[in-house]
Description:
Layout: H1 4-23, H2 38-49, H3 61-65, H4 67-85, H5 101-114, E1 134-138, H6 144-152, E2 158-163, H7 166-179, E3 184-188, E4 201-207, H8 216-226, E5 227-240, H9 249-262, H10 271-281, E6 284-290, H11 318-333, H12 341-361, E7 364-373
Parallel strand pairs: 1-2, 1-4, 2-3, 4-5
Antiparallel strand pairs: 5-7, 6-7
Amino acid sequence: MLCLSTLLYAALIPAGIYAFSVxxxxxxxxxxxxxxxxDNTIKKFEGEFVDEKSAKDAAxxxxxxxxxxxxxxxxxxxxxxxxxxxxxxFHFAPRYEGxxxxxxxxxxxxxxxxxxxxxxxxNALPTDEEKMPxxxxxxxGIGGPMRTVAKFFKYRxxxxxxxxxxxxxxxxxxxxxxxxxxNCDFIQGDFNKIPVDDxxxxxxxxxxxxxxxxxxxxxxxELYRVLKPGGRIVSAQYTLLDAYDEKNEEHVDIIxxxxxxxxxxCAGRKTAVTTKALKDAGFKILSYEDVFSKEAGSDIKFSxxxxxxxxxxxxxxxxGLMVTYAFCYIGETLRILPRGTAEVQSxxxxxxxxxxxAGREKILTPGMLYVLEKPxx
Length: 377
């Protein structure tokens, strides 16, 4: 009779081959050519913001003072993994039963585009780029939503992406060129200080980008400034839900870990706080809802992308996360991958766990979707 260890080894061989076949096509993604010293960079980031309860929380003065550096460093660390495990659109999306993950992403982006107030039919929109409606993509990432929105309007809008991370813009330009996406340009910079004139844009959208703002009122005022009177902004905000109890130590710790492993600032950001900041910035709120709620029609909780295959992502399952970590560890050992790659994956595994807990406790949504208007004078 075969011993247990022999059976185990026999099972591990095909499992290892399968894992390698899943991850291998993405090997070039993990080059980290844009980070000069990955190992020290991830250690420094974790040492300051991630590791234990004694680590600085998101509200620390030091972190807020250097928020642009913190956000840029965070995305330099995680972008390769996001591309591999998530795709080109770095945001959640409400899902219907039976709908695959990437289809839900596209549908959500189409819905947001449809709420921007840009007139239809699109054939009526000008073909001259100088006369096209101008749209701002806040925190454009590597351009996933930008490409979807550009195609949605048949390339008859001019989209400007603003992003703090230079590597994101490099990749966005590359992918735009590869897909033949037209009428898009970029600004590398802080969305609190956008270098354009007042009333430049006809519409603005924000897929979870302003979660990296340390001062939402300042951010919202800047977006108000660059939007034309009568223009709309559609913004997906991370907000704390009514079930969140600031006196509950477990709740506080979950949100601390969400903030620290995602480079964001959810602590204290209840829905009412965000709503007030938007009003104080001058916006008229046309509507807002938690798009991940049952009432909004979402069948699958946002946190389920980390729970199992129902979430629609093998890389988000516990097994998938472990497979990716094992691949990174072996890749480092064999010197195929840069030192520090496995540590980045470990940090993201912590992020996944914090999101799962936030979802189970029903204390956070990444999709409080606001449709706003700048009143006409």
